[in-house]
Amino acid sequence: MLYVFCIFSSSASEGLSDEWAIIELQGDIKSHSDSSFEGKFIGDLHFTKSGTPILIIGHHLMYGKEAKLEKPFALLEKKKRDDNTEYLVKSVIKNKIIFKTRPKPIVGKEC
After folding, report:
1. pLDDT tens for residues 49-80?
2. Percentage of the chain surpassing pLDDT 90?
3. DSSP string spanning 27-51?
4. Looking at the domain assignment, is residue 109 inside a domain?
5. Position 89 in a domain
6. What is the tens place of the pLDDT at every residue in 3-23?
7. How far apart are CA 45 and CA 32, in angstroms?
8. Residue 111 lies in a domain
9. What main location does UniProt list (predicted)?
């Protein structure tokens, strides 16, 4: 199981704040190189008009569903000040998006 933390930004004009969620993938993501995925672009997350999450990774498409976490997570920011370390709570994560079906290939029509 692979967990990815992501942020959903709402427009400031709507008066909504940023919301964090966990993306849960059932399976592994493989790379052609042995480099780490940390800090790299993996794919695009979209939502249909009905609110179904869609994850596009390369030429693969996955449909997911949203669920509440049994226990919320706190997103902390570590701050070092002189000899002290403090942690600031940036957000409380209450939701996750689960992708547990096999990816479907995206194929285009030939002209």
Report:
1. 998 999 998 888 999 999 999 999 888 889 99
2. 24
3. S----SSS---TTS---EEEE-TT-
4. no
5. yes
6. 565 655 444 444 445 678 888
7. 22
8. no
9. nucleus
Q: How many domains does the chain have?
A: 1
Are 53 and 45 within 8 A, CB to CB? yes
Nearest to 90 by CA among 8, 19, 13: 19
Return the number of other C-beta atoms located less than 10 Å from residue 21's C-beta: 21
The candidate with the shortest Cα–Cα distance to 26, out of 49, 4, 56, is 4
3-state secondary structure of 81: strand
The owner of tokens 């370390």 is 85
Backbone angles phi and psi of 50, in degrees to 5: -85, 0
pTM value surpassing 0.90: no
Domain span holding position 49: 2-32+39-103
Cβ(77)–Cβ(106) below 8 Å? no
